[in-house]
Amino acid sequence: MNTHQIIDVAYVTKRVNSDYYNKVNLPMPERPRNPSCDKRFTQYAHIADIKPDVYAQFQEAKRAYDLAKAEYDAALKAYNQESQRLEAEFWHDAAIACRVENHPKLGKLQHLAYEFGHSHGYATMWEYFSEMSDLLKDSSKN
């Protein structure tokens, strides 16, 4: 984030409208397929019925799956961390733009805006946040 940028309502609105807070610069990882679900290995009623060559194939598929799953978990963690960073940036920008960053009820405002708007995305959360933030401002200062 550019520290010289003035964060105001227009700035946050522009970022919300451009989908900035949703742009995770990492691909969503694809979960590997567990070989335990593969019909080649699940068609046997008892483990004793599994032929040695089929069992060896399963063991190799399981090792490959375990490696792929570890890579998937690491990639998913990185993806989620970046997504959470963008969400934290949204809340930070919203609080500064609405001039409520030090208000003791900021957490409650964020909670309400999230609860009412998250299913419709950042634009709706921003709408609720910016509208309800007026309730936190001291009217005697106007």
Characterise this structure:
This protein is mainly α. It has one domain. The chain has helices at 9-17, 39-42, 52-97, 106-117, 122-133. It is elongated, with a radius of gyration of 24 Å. The two termini are 31 Å apart. The mean pLDDT is 89.
Radius of gyration: 24 Å
DSSP, total strands: 0
> How many structural domains are formed by the residues?
1
The N- to C-terminal Cα distance equals 31 Å
Q: How large is the share of residues in beta strands?
A: under 5%
Mean pLDDT reading: 89
**Unreliable sequence segments:** none
| Helix run count | 5
Shape: elongated
| H/E topology pattern | HHHHH
Short descriptors:
single chain; 142 residues; mainly alpha; 58% helix; elongated
Topology:
Layout lengths: L8 H9 L21 H4 L9 H46 L8 H12 L4 H12 L9
Helix pairs in contact: 1-3, 1-5, 3-5, 4-5
Q: Short description, anyone?
A:
This protein is an all-alpha fold and 142 residues long.
